């Protein structure tokens, strides 16, 4: 979370200050190394999405809007993508992979779809005691909710999930508006701030 936020903010500042290509190269290199050292697939995917959004903003406006809309709609699905065993779990034989395998994520989704309707609006802090969730125990009786969207829905209900999604969408829209305002009035501060806000929001949405 913090690394993605800092990266987006620094990219904004580098563009405002019109940093040299060497400055960009050094920053991207140092930050890529920092991301790798987290051994967190969530952080890696979030970083990749952030770079993707920064790239998209170099495309034509029509194509940019199509790609941003498609990626935002599909972003919750990234939490179910199996990207292989994480380095941390590989170094911890017999331990629990905190990010889960594809099979675990699939079973988690099925179990959650059965549990969520029981406390649909407000969720339940005791949902892990349900039989469907007990079947997901791994390692030292750990039930790891690796999908942030499911975690909100299970813990706090669909009302909270709806509010969360609205906040994500609002952040994206504000970023798009800021960028458009900067383009219309030739104001680089608003233009680059909008790009950074959209990139950070997309990155956080899949972590």
Can you give a write-up of this model?
Helices cover 67% and strands 0% of the residues. It is mainly α and 207 residues long. The protein is elongated. The N and C termini lie close together (8 Å). Residues 81-100 have low confidence and may be disordered.
Briefly characterize the structure.
67% of the residues lie in helices and 0% in strands. It is built from 9 helices and no strands.
Keywords:
0% strand, mainly alpha, 207 residues, 9 helices
Specify the helix fraction band.
55-70%
Tally of separate helices = 9
Number of strands: 0
Radius of gyration: 19 Å
Through-space gap between termini: 8 Å
Query: How much of the residues is beta strand, in percent?
Result: under 5%
Uncertain segments are 81-100
The chain-level mean pLDDT equals: 77
Secondary structure class reads mainly alpha
Largest sheet: none
Tell the overall outline.
elongated
The secondary-structure element order is HHHHHHHHH
Provide the fold topology:
Blueprint: H1 2-16, H2 21-37, H3 41-56, H4 61-74, H5 87-90, H6 102-115, H7 131-134, H8 148-184, H9 188-205
Helix pairs in contact: 1-2, 1-9, 3-9, 8-9
């Amino acid at each position: 979370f913090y690394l993605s936020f800092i990266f987006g903010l620094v990219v904004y500042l580098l563009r405002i200050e019109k940093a040299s290509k060497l400055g960009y190269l050094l920053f991207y290199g140092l930050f890529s190394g920092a991301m790798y050292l987290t051994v967190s697939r969530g952080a890696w995917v979030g970083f990749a999405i952030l770079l993707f959004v920064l790239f998209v903003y170099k495309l034509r406006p029509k194509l940019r809007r199509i790609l941003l809309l498609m990626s935002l709609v599909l972003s919750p699905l990234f939490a179910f993508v199996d990207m292989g065993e994480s380095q941390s779990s590989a170094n911890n034989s017999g331990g629990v992979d905190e990010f889960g395998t594809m099979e675990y994520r699939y079973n988690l989704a099925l179990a959650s779809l059965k549990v969520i309707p029981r406390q649909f609006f407000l969720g339940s802090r005791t949902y892990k005691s349900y039989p469907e969730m007990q079947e997901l125990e791994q390692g030292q009786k750990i039930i790891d909710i690796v999908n942030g969207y499911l975690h909100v829905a299970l813990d706090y209900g669909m009302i909270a999930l709806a509010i969360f999604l609205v906040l994500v969408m609002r952040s994206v829209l504000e970023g798009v508006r800021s960028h458009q305002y900067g383009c219309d009035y030739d104001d680089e501060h608003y233009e680059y701030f909008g790009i950074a806000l959209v990139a950070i929001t997309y990155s956080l949405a899949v972590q």
